[in-house]
Amino acid sequence: MTPTIFFVVVVLCFGLVWTIWTSFTASKLLPSNDFVGMDQYFRLFASNLWQASVVNVAVFGLLFISGCLTLGYLLAVLLDQNIRFEDGFRTIFLMSASLSFVVTGIVWQWVLDPTYGVQAAVRSWGIAGFRFDFLTRQDTAIYALVGAGVWQATGLGMVIMLAGLRGIDQDIWNATRIDGVARWKVYVHVIPAMIRPMIATAAVLLSLTAIKIYDLVVVMTGGGPGTATEVPAKYVMDMLFQRSNLGQATAAATVMLLAICLLVGLPFVVVHFSRKRIAGGTHR
């Protein structure tokens, strides 16, 4: 355990404390101990670029998580029908999750590129008015990112929820069959409540991916057009390497850390106290 303990205590804890401390200083290109209090955070929340980044990641996260959970559940239900070649289909659906966002971004950038992608191919067939230029328009670029992200991460949600479906007692299915409940109604009204922990696990993992999204944005859009696809992680990297503003970068990184902690910790706290309240009511 010694190497692991050393890594956690020295590397992670020291790096975390150093990052938080630096966010309260006027550090620029190099770290400094010039304490400025909350100035970096005031500048951060007053920045139009940061505000746009937060809005964009909220839109991306909402659509990305809901899309992955919905499509993942539908694929899990289809695979739960004892179809032939299930292993092959499961491998195909999960294969995209094995790719990095860099690879996914490059592929989807080619597909959506107006000069070389689908638009150019269709227009070469004589349909001159066809448009497939989502990446070049400010009002649609974020949705192109969502489509690429959902394509890659749906397989992860599918596998988690399929494991939940396979863990359901056969007696449940027998009871619904005896009661004459349509199978699709069971999947819509009964099963989601029974696999709630799996859905919550998938949602948390996808939420972490959405908050930290960076490489997909850089490869596909570079944050553009304009600020249409700017995200917090890119804001941190730009402040760190392009503008040499270490204090501002660490302040943004600290806010992202707090968001992740709330996102991961709050559901567990809510579930814990809900169980204690239920247990207390049952005991009384």
From TrEMBL:
- InterPro entries in the record: ABC_transporter_permease, MetI-like, MetI-like_sf
Q: Which residue ranges does UniProt annotate as crossing the membrane?
A: 49-79, 91-111, 141-165, 186-211, 249-274
* Topological relation to the membrane, as annotated: Multi-pass membrane protein
* Subcellular location(s) of the protein: Cell membrane
UniProt KW Ion transport keyword: no
PROSITE patterns given in the database record: ABC_TM1 (PS50928)
Lineage: superkingdom: Bacteria
Alphabetized Pfam families for the sequence: BPD_transp_1 (PF00528)
Keywords from the UniProt entry:
Cell membrane, Membrane, Transmembrane, Transmembrane helix, Transport
**ABC transmembrane type-1 domain location, by residue?**
54-268
Q: Which family does it belong to?
A: Belongs to the binding-protein-dependent transport system permease family.
User: Known PANTHER family for this protein?
Assistant: ABC TRANSPORTER PERMEASE PROTEIN (PTHR30193)
The protein's name: Sugar ABC transporter permease
